[in-house]
Amino acid sequence: MQMLGFLVTRTMAIVLGVVALAGHCQADPAVGTWVRKAPMITSRAELSLAEVGGKLYALGGMIDGTSVALNEAYDIATDTWRVRHPMPRALDHLGVAVVNGKIVTVGGFVGAVHKDGQATVLEYDPSADAWRTLAPMSAGRGSVGVAVLDGKVYAIGGRNPANATVPTNEVYDPATNTWTALAPLPKARDHAAVIAAGGKIHVIGGRFTGPGDRTDLHDIYDPASNTWTSGPPLPTARSGLAYALYRG
After folding, report:
1. Which of 40, 95, 159, 163 satisfies CB 3.0 to 4.6 Å to 146 for a cystine?
2. CATH of domain 41-230
3. Prediction pTM value
């Protein structure tokens, strides 16, 4: 009987240990850590970011409702910032892409709130610290989603000069400095996450009207067939979100 009691007690201890371990695993925080780095030189909102050669470029944005032309570079290795040549014009809510070691900015607004979406397309060469103007989009758009695939820049969705969201999808070819219209986004929206992965472009989340009109939609564009399909929705409807492709 003593042996049986020992076995029962030991079994219960093991079960309780497993339950406790399972509870501990469920309570574990998400993997990864955060570290505070050197702040930007100029605090601002609605700016855009791009990475070239181990440096992050903070472009445009808004200060107290007014668009700015600021261009500040962050050196990841040294955790330092420095001022670079400003953009040719002040814009916020820019779409940004990196092609052939250069930064391409697409569209943007001229002030709060979502004022007068522009068709402006600019190129910044970090090595020369210089800007030049490229062929504009077919029409003005701000908060447009931008992604690079096979050396071409895709500009999807956004908000037009009348402050209405649009389903526009067009692609820029740096080799010819031209834009081409493509199959439109299934549902017009802006402030979405737009990113290329696995040979396709994903448009995730966004908003239809104001900040409270958010969506969990996930649309996938296939350049090979110029068609859209639906992907798994975002777990939480969000707009104006930050996003990145990391290890696939």
Report:
1. 95
2. 2.120.10.80
3. 0.86
